[in-house]
Amino acid sequence: MKILKSLMVTAAVSLALMASAAHAENKKIALVVKALGIGFFEAANKGAQEAAKELGNVEVIYTGPTTTTAEGQIEVINSLIAQKVDAIAVSANDTDALVPALKKAMDRGIKVISWDSGVAKDGRLMHLNPSSSPLIGNMIIKLAADNLPEGGDVAVLSATATSTNQNVWIEEMKKVQGNYKGINVVATVYGDDLADKSYRETQGLIQSYPNLKAIIAPTSVGIVAAAQAVTDAGKIGQINVTGLGLPSEMAGHVKSGASKSFAIWNPIDLGYSATMIANDLINGAEAKPGAELKMGRMGAVKLDDNNEGAMADPFVYDASNVEEFAKIF
């Protein structure tokens, strides 16, 4: 009997040690977002958690500052370095400001990628664009122009002045502006991805430009705030709000007519893909021009000369389909 008890205890201890070892082998991937509490990034986290569940030996740490500042992200990154995570996937609030902290992370053996909003090349191994920047730039101005056959004044409501992705998309938009007859971009303002500031900036645009016909907001926070400001000002039918947004947040504004259409890629897929790429790098894949990195069910992404790749084309939502997709994200 004593021998049997001894064997049982030994077996239990062995199982506990095996479980502990398995847990210790779990790879920790930090998904660092511009700020917590933003629907786009909450959806991206769903995708990241899906990837972690699929991989089985990955723990995703979803984190970010409370406001969209580089300083807040640097503080988060330094904390993750201290935690000795295996990878950091960051959507950056500033192209250059995060580089020293991210280089420090890479010096410690942490795999660093940027996604959605990139960091300078020295601060990451690769960058995952949600889509091709030229395609996005063309799309956002086309959405406005399609509803302005005679042209008209258009304004841009962006996120922060240092947001890498928005700045690139706006620059690409300006490159093709001449393709859309009569479209006149009168101003670009910044709501800092804060709903209240974005709302106030929209009010300012409405007051400053009485002939304004459309507002382009390439930010999921800004587009909702702008649509609400247009609604509250009684300007539905006079000013069309378009840009990049989430179906779940924009369905009501499409129904009201404040927005005729908008675009976005699937943020769930984006968070999923970033996590899969980080895992591939942890497992020994090399980020270099021409390399193809695994993205699970999304296939693979091929890196260009700047170690960047694009996930998918943007998709347009309007009254014909927004309700259907609002149930998903």
TrEMBL record:
Q: Which interval of the chain is the signal sequence?
A: 1-24
Which family is annotated?
Belongs to the bacterial solute-binding protein 2 family.
- Keyword Signal appears in the UniProt entry: yes
Gene Ontology biological process terms from the UniProt entry: rhamnose transmembrane transport
Write one Pfam family the protein is assigned to: Peripla_BP_4
Q: Matching SUPFAM superfamilies, A to Z?
A: Periplasmic binding protein-like I (SSF53822)
Q: Which residues cross the membrane?
A: none
Task: Name the source organism.
Answer: Ensifer oleiphilus
InterPro entries per the UniProt record, alphabetical: Bact_Solute-Bind_Prot2, Peripla_BP_I, RhaS, SBP_2_dom
Which protein are we looking at? Rhamnose ABC transporter substrate-binding protein
Q: Does the keyword Signal apply?
A: yes
Q: Where in the cell is it found?
A: Periplasm
Task: Tell me the ranges covered by the Periplasmic binding protein domain, including all copies.
Answer: 29-285
Main localization (coarse): periplasm
Q: Which GO terms describe its cellular component?
A: outer membrane-bounded periplasmic space
Q: Which UniProt keywords apply?
A: Signal
Q: List the molecular function annotations (GO) for this entry.
A: carbohydrate binding
Top-rank taxon: Bacteria
